[in-house]
Design brief:
The protein has helices at residues 5-27, 31-41, 45-67, 84-100, 105-113, 117-134, 139-149, 161-181, 189-212, 229-240, 248-267, 281-298, 304-311, 315-342, 350-356, and strands spanning 81-83, 150-152. With 358 residues, it is mainly alpha-helical. Strands 1-2 form a two-stranded antiparallel ribbon. Keywords: Cell inner membrane, Cell membrane, Membrane, Transmembrane, Transmembrane helix, Transport.
Length: 358
C-alpha cells in the first residue's frame, strides 16, 4: 500500500520520537541535568552534550536552509512580531519549573517510558496549563500582554547569508571550544553520541516536515522537536481523537515514550515508581505548571527553543533560551540556599541522577 505524504510524515515522526526516546533513556540527556550537575558538582559532561546537540542542529539546519531544502523563515520561531517581555519571562518561568519538576517535558516523557509515574503527573499538568495559556482561561490575558509589549523586528533572524554564517562561525566556534575544553568529555561515549544524535534528530524533523511533507495542496506545518504544546495536543487527542487530525508533534511524543520503554526494558531499568514523600508533590505540581505556562509564553521548551528554535538563528529563540538558562540557574541557587539553611546537601549517586533528574 502506497503511503500519502501526510502518512509518511507521521510514520517518520514516530521514528524520530522512538530514536529520541532510546537515546534519552540510555544517556540521561536533558538541560536540567546539565545545569544541575554543572552547578552542584562542576561536572560539565551533560552541558557539553547539550552544546554539541545545539552545534549539530544549527549547522545541519542552516545547511538545509542555505541549500533551499527547507525555508526556516516559515517556522513559528521566525515571526516579525514578538513580545520581548513574555518571551524572556516565559523562558525564565519554564527554566524555573524544569528544575522544580526535576526534568523538562522531553525528559519527563523519557522517564514515563521507564515507569516513573511522577512524570505522568508532570506531563498532565504541563500539557493542560500550556493549553490553558495558549487558548484557554489564560489566553485572553496572554493576548493582551502580547499586544502591549510586542515589538516589530526589521528581521526575525540574520537577513543575509554572510551575516548568518559569520554568526555561525563565531558562535559555533565558541560552542566547539567549550565542548573540547574538557578532554575527558570526549571519552564519555554516551554523552557524545547523545549530543550528535539529538542534534541530527532536530535536522531530521525539518527534513520530514519541510521537504518530505511539502505539499502545495495539503501543506504540513514546518516544525521539528518541541515538547510543550505537543504534550497538550497528545492529551487532547487521547480524549477527542475522532475530532482531531493526528499531527507530527503528537506522534513524536508517543514515539519518545515508546522508545524509552523499549530501551528501559532492554537494559533492565524499567521500574514503576511514584512519589517517595507526599511533600514532594506540591513541588512537582508547581514545576509542571510553570513549565506549561512558561513554555506557552516563550513558544517552546529547552528542546523546542534551546535546540530547534536556536537552529533557526531566531532572535526570539535566543531571548527565550537565555531566559530558560537564567530561570534554571535561579531555581538551582534557591534550592541550594534552602538546603544549606536546613541540612547538609546529600549528593546523589550517578545512577540516582540518571533516574531522577533530567
Amino acid at each position: 500500500m502506497e503511503l500519502s505524504v501526510s502518512e509518511w510524515v507521521l510514520w517518520l515522526g514516530l521514528a524520530i520520537g522512538l530514536a529520541y526516546g532510546v537515546i534519552g533513556q540510555l544517556s540521561g540527556f536533558c538541560l536540567n541535568s546539565a545545569l544541575r550537575q554543572q552547578l552542584t558538582s562542576g561536572n560539565g559532561n551533560k552541558l557539553r552534550a547539550f552544546a554539541l546537540a545545539m552545534l549539530v542542529a544549527i549547522l545541519g539546519s542552516q545547511m538545509l536552509n542555505t541549500a533551499g531544502v527547507v525555508d526556516l523563515s516559515q517556522s513559528i520561531y521566525q515571526m516579525p512580531q514578538v513580545s520581548w517581555l513574555l518571551t524572556i519571562f516565559g523562558g525564565m518561568l519554564f527554566g524555573f519549573g524544569m528544575i522544580r519538576a526535576r526534568g523538562c517535558g522531553a525528559r519527563s516523557l523519557v522517564l514515563l517510558g521507564q515507569g516513573n509515574l511522577r512524570s505522568l503527573l508532570v506531563l498532565l499538568i504541563m500539557g493542560i496549563s500550556a493549553f490553558a495559556t495558549l487558548s484557554g482561561v489564560l489566553g485572553p490575558l496572554r493576548s493582551s500582554i502580547t499586544e502591549m509589549t510586542a515589538v516589530t523586528l526589521d528581521s526575525s533572524s540574520f537577513s543575509t547569508d554572510a551575516d548568518r554564517w559569520t554568526f555561525i562561525a563565531i558562535f559555533g566556534g565558541l560552542l566547539f571550544a567549550f565542548i573540547c575544553k574538557d578532554k575527558g568529555f570526549l571519552q564519555q561515549r554516551l554523552d557524545v553520541i547523545s549530543g550528535l544524535v539529538i542534534g541530527l534528530l532536530v535536522v531530521a524533523g525539518w527534513i520530514v516536515t519541510g521537504w518530505i511533507g511539502f505539499d502545495e495542496f495539503e501543506p504540513t506545518p514546518l516544525v521539528s522537536l518541541t515538547f510543550v504544546a505537543p504534550v497538550g495536543s497528545a492529551i487532547q487527542y487521547a480524549m477527542i481523537a475522532t475530532g482531531m487530525t493526528l499531527s507530527f508533534g503528537v506522534v513524536v511524543v508517543l514515539g519518545v515514550v515508546l522508545g524509552s520503554f523499549f530501551a528501559a526494558r532492554a537494559t533492565g531499568q524499567f521500574s514503576i515508581t511514584g512519589f517517595d514523600k507526599s511533600a514532594d508533590m506540591p513541588r512537582y505540581l508547581l514545576g509542571a505548571a510553570c513549565m506549561g505556562i512558561g513554555g506557552a509564553l516563550a513558544l517552546g521548551c529547552s528542546i523546542g527553543q534551546g535546540l530547534t528554535g536556536m537552529s533557526t538563528l531566531s532572535f526570539a529563540s535566543m531571548m527565550a533560551f537565555a531566559g530558560i538558562c537564567a530561570g534554571g540557574w535561579l531555581a538551582l541557587r534557591l534550592e541550594r540556599l534552602s538546603v544549606a539553611s536546613s541540612e547538609p546537601i546529600q549528593r546523589q549517586t550517578g545512577s540516582e541522577q540518571h533516574q531522577q533528574s533530567a
